[in-house]
Amino acid sequence: MGRIYTKTGDKGKTSIFGGERVEKDDNRVEAYGTLDELNAALGVVRSLVSDKHIFYSKLYLIQMHMMPTMSIVATPDVRRSENQNIFDKEWVTDLENDIDQLLSQTKDNGFFILPGGTVVSAQLQWARTVARRAERRLWSLNRIDPVPEDILKWINRISDLLFVMAKYEMQSQNWPEEKWKEFAYKRKKK
User: How far is it, in rounded angstroms, from Cα 96 to Cα 6?
Assistant: First the structure.
């Protein structure tokens, strides 16, 4: 491996797809940078479970899909046709199926819960919050340069899946969830 530093970013600018130089805190850089952070958070969770664990291959697949997604987000809309990376809209459906499968095996307690519990559950909850921030950054970028709609949906579903995975992990380990407050729609009307 050659030198990793280029010194081209020392003045607060970086290159995006197509060679354009932008500020390092540009909305696009914030968006794909937060996706990169999410990818790393998913890697932490995967490192905590065995390769036989129900989450391992699901998280691996999300990480593999995250790489082309980051490349697409790093590409301005007017240059996206030049980017050979593809986002498959079926990835959204796949996540929805995973969510439904895990929900069918998870009890609903009717309460907001505090993030935590097992190490895996706590890390999944942390990754969920990174996914939510990535979603916010993508919507900020979308206001100035369109982000493919399916990418916006996919990131939203990732955070939903991570929440359900955290609940599933807690319940499969017989670890009690720490309840904060009952859902308002489940409270009895007086």
Answer: 41
